[in-house]
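for the writeup, i need someone to sanity check this before i put it in the appendix. the sequnce is what the collaborator sent (i think, or maybe the updated version? ugh). structure was predicted straight from it, no edits. if anything looks off just tell me and ill rerun, i have time this weekend
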Amino acid sequence: MDAKWITPAVTVMDQNGHADLEENSRLYENLIQKGMDGILLLGSIGEFFAIPMEEKRQLVKRAVKTVNGRIPLIVGTNCMVVDECVDFSNYALEQGADGVIVISPYYVNLPDSSLEAFYGRIAREVKGNIYLYNYPGVTGYELHPELILKLALTYENIVGIKDTVPNMDHTRAIITLVKAQRPDFQVFSGFDENFAHNLLSGGNGCMAGTSNFAPEISAGFAGAARRDDLAGMAACQKKIDSLMAIYGIRSLFVPVIKEAMVLRGIISSAVCAQPHCRATEAETEAVRALLEKNGLLS
């Protein structure tokens, strides 16, 4: 199977809540060395909504330099103002990113006609590969498969989608409808536990967060899939199913993912940008117990 697991990387912050370029470079290097298939910068887990534009640009420039073409680098260029989204997207691509990913506008529940106009303008003005980002849990609505098909057939540079939905029915509909007419269109799940189901349905894998603190498991899962090793995939699925409990420790899960990374020595700071707050002592202990249960703490 053509399987890819792309890490939506956290943004490592200093004690003042600003992006720490050196620490982020070390994170990218760790993900590369542990075998991840790509990095998504400034996604939801990357706290894109709380980082000033100038810091985002610095992060992109440093990430491109650090990754240096060894694995694909996709940048979240999500902005509610379309001009800013276009400008930041073209900046990321000019710096050397392999693609950009754009969430649909949030706060307002838009009809398909507005979404077609939004993504159409971005596709016409952005000079490179674009991934759609469907996350109804935060936008309040979904990108319908029929709209995705229309966009994919109209704009060659719309090359794929991250479909962050808990159940596979919506993702499966995209795979069935869009890939039948555009086989090169990439469909990724946004939840870790859907990785194998996505692949077996004809998709491309996932962009999912446990790979920040357990990249060896995610990379092992993808490797088993590429070898068509169903027994290996089944073993990895059990590990991922267990690790999914981290999302239940806190509904806004970025702080607990960062605590898991600190406990494993991957990053040195679990500080988040406001409005996120640090994990509580009880939440941190729950993270520690989960890591110990899964053999991720020595």
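The longest helix spans residues 53-67. The two ends are 33 Å apart (CA to CA).
thx in advance!!
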